[in-house]
Design goal:
The termini are far apart. The chain is mostly helical and about 100 residues long.
Length: about 100
């Protein structure tokens, strides 16, 4: 069975336990995909490698975000929010580093 298949079965079992009242929803991590990293990158007209290099993000991490294998959290979400709103500000800040 594929990894995705195993994760789907696990998720279904967890949902069933919550529905039966055997588990509380707060005991499970909820994944949110509300930040469209790929859309941010494409709006800037950059390839994955260009975006990753410009904003100093490991290209593997960027791929994981875009393919929804991982969610950007904490400082990464903040960085991506600023990139989405004012990419030049981030570029200026990183130019001095």
């Amino acid at each position: 069975m594929t990894d995705l298949g195993k994760r789907l079965i696990t998720a279904a079992k967890q949902a069933r336990a919550i529905a039966r009242g055997d588990a509380h929803p707060s005991t499970y991590r909820v994944r949110r995909f509300d930040m469209d990293v790929q859309a941010i990158r494409k709006r800037l007209g950059l390839s994955q490698s260009e975006f990753a290099a410009r904003y100093r993000i490991p290209v593997g991490t960027l791929r994981d975000w875009e393919q929804h294998r991982r969610d950007p959290e904490g400082p990464a979400r903040t960085l991506l929010t600023v990139i989405a709103k004012d990419p030049k500000a981030v570029e200026r800040a990183l130019a001095d580093v």
